[in-house]
Amino acid sequence: MTGIGKSFPGARVLTDVDLDVTAGEVHALIGENGAGKSTLMKILAGVHTPDEGTIELHGRTVAFKHPLDAQRAGVAIIYQELTLLPERTVAENVFLGREPVRRGLVDRAAMEATTARLLDELGEDSFGPRDLVRRLSVAQQQVVEIVKALSVDARIVVMDEPTAALAESEVELLYRLVRQLSERGIAVLYISHRLREIFELSDRVTVLKDGAKVATVATAELSTADLVRLMVGRELTDYYPARATGPAGEVLLSVRGGGNAKLDGIDLDLRAGEIVGLAGLQGAGRTELAKALFGAEPFTRGEMTPKRPGSVQQGIAAGIGLVTEDRKSEGLVLHQSVRDNALLVSRTRRGRVAAPVLELLERVRLAPPSPEKEVRLLSGGNQQKVVLAKWLTVAPRVLLFDEPTRGVDVGAKAAIHELVRELAEDGMAVLMISSELPELIGMSDRIVVLRDGRIAGHLPAGSSEEAVMHLAAGS
Questions:
Q1: Longest Cα–Cα distance in the chain
Q2: For residue 446, what are the β-bridge partners?
Q3: What is the pLDDT of residue 367?
Q4: Are 199 and 221 in contact (CB under 8 A)?
Q5: Which of 205, 277, 421, 426 pairs as cysteine with 444 (C-beta 3.0–4.6 A)?
Q6: Helices and strands, counts by H and E, the chain
Q7: What is the pLDDT of residue 323?
Q8: Quick one: DSSP state of residue 148?
Q9: Residue of 88, 44, 86, 83 whose CA lies nearest to 62
Q10: Would residue 302 be called left, alpha or beta, if left means φ above 0 and alpha means ψ between -120 and 50 degrees?
Q11: What Rg value do the Cα atoms of the chain yield, rounded?
């Protein structure tokens, strides 16, 4: 791709961007939210046409006017939010829109045989071509997307934030599949905010900033600090704000013997001024615990102070807030304005807003603080800041964060980390769930580890990833 430029009404998104990728290469594309990564890849995949520049594939200039043109030329894109049809089978999704026909009818046997062969080549035996997609995990659905790409003989596969919704245990499966694609001579363009993945998987890295290319560098020549400096244009000498130095304050939330269908024997105290990290493998009960404390999936036994909430409304009234892990489906109304989203919680209480909305948007560092802009038009990091502002309107005493920086770039992560620490310093009790162990260890004043719906142990600040995983896995 040479000299690629693209504008949308009122915004210049890409300016004179060059990108090249070779057969069998894993090429990472990184940058802060809004840097232009997804737009560049959508141009390659035929979703958008460039205003300027050219694309050459196998040495020939191409001009894709439709995603099918790109697909026929061997370019496949796997979006962060998967595009499979849940009520169709795996084989039906793999061949969607290009079903083989025999004697005037869809040849299901051929579809299923080809799908089975490709699954076998990838070493995937946990599901088959006749399984309904809705019964598959997110990781398995990504396997289906990869099979789909292989079925059209893709030579370039674009992966946009492929691990954003995966548990740590599922990430290794994706790594294996990426390496298999590379060994087949397929070029993989890999977009991710997770720097560890970049260093583990990629051969080269291209960094975009504000719609322009900053550099393309061999990954082996970079350190984490180098990569962050290229992305954000400044040094991030410390990824996480300093921990609290004094003792924690009074207990603001206490549970003894808490349990429901998914949790048992939960004993937990959250104190003013303290950030408690909550760790555990996928399925350990982390999200379920946050929802039980909040009243969304209430405890059915045990004692809790404040009084055990039996509903979301009771949780909010008790001064508890929950920043959910999926901001788009559970935290925001995407087609409403920033202002309306920021007022969602306060309107349910019909109470006085803790501070003017504009003041709260400035506090969460929304840039720019545009109250009338539709939330769907914001980057992932700014959407997360609106979710935080929504809770600050009612000034909760306890705030539960479930994956607070998922799908958020390095610069926005740092801003959210600083804000979480500020809230704790102002006397709030914070429970923070994160699948990224470095984040959990870097932010927490102590760590609670869950396993199979029970608390497996407690660890002090600064504990190692190995110590957390030993408790989480029961080893």
A1: 78
A2: 276, 460
A3: 78
A4: no
A5: 277
A6: 17, 21
A7: 93
A8: H
A9: 44
A10: left
A11: 24
Identity of residue 452 = D
Alpha-carbon distance 162 to 105, whole Å? 35
Cβ atoms within 10 Å of 288's Cβ, excluding its own: 18
pLDDT at 267 over 60: yes
Question: Helix 380-392 and helix 410-425: axis angle, to 10°?
Answer: 10
* Residues 345, 121: Cα–Cα separation, whole Å: 50
What token pair was written down for 347?
Answer: 């309107």
DSSP track, 221-243: G--HHHHHHHHHSS--S-SSPPP
CB 306 within 8 A of CB 398: no
> Which residues are within 8 A (CB) of 137 and not within 5 positions of it... i.e. 6 or more apart?
170
The model carries a pTM of 0.64
DSSP-assigned beta bridge partners for residue 402 = 433
Strand order in the sheet with 187-191: 75-78, 156-160, 187-191, 26-30, 204-209, 212-218
CA gap 447, 464 in Å, rounded: 11
Tokens matching residue 242: 């300093």
- In a 3-state reduction of DSSP, which class is residue 77? strand
Number of CB atoms found within 10 A of residue 450's CB:
24
Distances (CA, A) of 161 to 144, 171, 216, 222: 16, 12, 19, 21
Look at 115-124, 134-143, 255-264, 353-362 and tell me which has the smallest mean pLDDT: 353-362
Q: Confidence band (pLDDT; 50, 70, 90) for 412?
A: confident
Tokens of 332: 């925001």
Which amino acid is present at 110?
A
Q: What is the mean pLDDT of residues 129-140?
A: 89
The identity of residue 292, as a single letter, is A
CA distances from 58 to 17, 62, 74, 126 (A): 19, 10, 10, 36
